[in-house]
Amino acid sequence: MNKLLLFAPVLVISLFSSCNNDDDSDNLTQEEELANLNALFVAIQDMASSVPCTDAADWAHTAYGDKACGGPVGYIAYPTSINTTLFLEKVAEHRSAQEAFNEKWEVASDCSLPGEPTAIRCEDGAPVFEYGS
Torsion over CA of 71, 77, 82 and 88, rounded to 10 degrees? Predict the structure, then answer.
């Protein structure tokens, strides 16, 4: 019984110390948060470039990022043959994270909005946006 009484406080302490919040983003520096945002965007770019562009009909585009004044940072082309649900979830996660980053760190923006592409063409295996009518 005495051994159990000695063990109980250790168990309680270990339970409380292991139940810390997994979201340590409040403790990150601005540079660390920016690195996380950039890493997420690199993962998005990797998914988008995982298939060579050979037929523009097999490609789509979506807005990404969040400017401090509102609106997207830009547009990214992606092949419709990838897991588009996962891809668009990552894009939405990045947009939300960038919005929170901008608000937390009081980021300023030029407030200009990028033009939305009207078409995609394939050039040397890569998607290229076209603008205009």
Answer: 0
32: tokens are: 């660390």
Distances, alpha carbon 84 to alpha carbons 19, 52, 60, 96, in Å: 35, 16, 10, 18
List of residues 6+ apart from 113 with CB closer than 8 A: 67, 71, 72
Q: What is the DSSP string of 51-96?
A: S--S-GGGEEEEEE---TTSS-SEEEEEETTS-HHHHHHHHHHHHH
Nearest to 91 by CA among 125, 26, 46, 29: 46
In this prediction the pTM is 0.80
111-124 core/surface letters (b: 16 or more CB in 10 A; e: else): eeebeebeebebee
**72 vs 118: CA distance, rounded Å:** 16
pLDDT in tens, 36-85: 999 999 999 999 999 999 999 999 999 999 999 999 999 999 999 999 99
Strand partners, 61: 77
